[in-house]
Amino acid sequence: MDQYAFADPRTRYPRISPPVQQQEEPGLQQEMTPVPDLGEHGYRGTGRLTGRRALITGADSGIGAAVAIAFAREGADVTMSYLPEEEDDAAQIAALVEAAGRSVTRVPGDLTDPAYCRTLVDTAVHAMGGLDAVVNIAGKQRWVERLEDLDDALFEETYRTNVFAAFHVIKAAVPHLPPGSTIVNTASAEAYQPAPDRIDYASTKAAVNNLSKGLAQQLVERGIRVNVVAPGPTWTALQPSGGVDPETLPDFGASEAPIGRAAQPVEQAPAYVFLTSAESSFVVGATLNVNGGMPSP
């Protein structure tokens, strides 16, 4: 559906009831049932990011892929970060970016490695001739019912993926960002309403939110805006690859969001476009909650 079409938000996208399914982490989007809607067939750009040069982490699938498609159709060149195991999904998204007439650079690697984060930024700057938009979306989420079963290594890796990686990417990128540049980080509704079986994930999202607000105050003095998107339940590869209890998948999102359904990734993309575009020039240190009505501060 064209994102500008008038429609009831409760039924604009289907209320999905995914069958119980499980993949090895990190999972492939093309093997999900149903396959998420990234806006491949419906997102229509209007030139809001013409000439921008964006680095997007987690751009192979889910929200990151929807953002990559939207940015390209809005006129931005894109550098994609993703894990090597996600190459099949990444290739499909890269083809859609190119079909929009924009350049795309693929840089597979592990964001938990600070050296890769620095290489990622350097590659993006070289390939696109500069950098003026950083979008951190890649994340790790695993459900663990009991605290005693939450492995120390898993807890640390979740923080390295969700918090440390954003820090390393931003730190490497800032020297290249001219005034007018933007950074958009990704928190979650779980920063405010943590799921008891995802305490490591939820706490990282609260940390991302806080980190972003501190960075926003520091970097606005250089003309760089930092903001946050906090999605609610959204159907992505995180869920069938260990992100939630697989037995709960048939009801995913239906009870959490007052709108009565989970979001599709395409519904998250416009928030990132807005916060990256010049029309949000007076928006600094804000968290845009795209969560279907879940109460948030």
CATH topology (fold) name: Rossmann fold
Kindly provide the name of the CATH class: Alpha Beta
Q: Report the C-alpha radius of gyration, rounded.
A: 18 Å
CATH architecture: 3-Layer(aba) Sandwich
What is the total tally of β strands?
7
Mean pLDDT: 97
Largest sheet: 7 strands, parallel
Query: Based on helices, strands and strand pairing, what is the structural class?
Result: alpha/beta
- Unreliable segments of 5+ consecutive residues: none
Record the strand order, biggest sheet.
3-2-1-4-5-6-7
Backbone shape: globular
Compute the separation of the termini in Å.
31 Å
Query: What is the H level of CATH, i.e. the homologous superfamily?
Result: NAD(P)-binding Rossmann-like Domain
Beta-strand percent range: 5-15%
How helical, in percent, are the residues? Answer: 25-40%
Number of helices: 6
Order of helices and strands: EHEHEHEHEHEHE
Number of domains: 1
Outline the fold blueprint.
Blueprint: E1 53-57, H1 62-73, E2 77-82, H2 87-99, E3 104-108, H3 114-128, E4 133-136, H4 152-173, E5 182-186, H5 199-219, E6 225-231, H6 265-276, E7 287-290
Parallel strand pairs: 1-2, 1-4, 2-3, 4-5, 5-6, 6-7
Helix pairs in contact: 1-2, 1-6, 3-4, 4-5
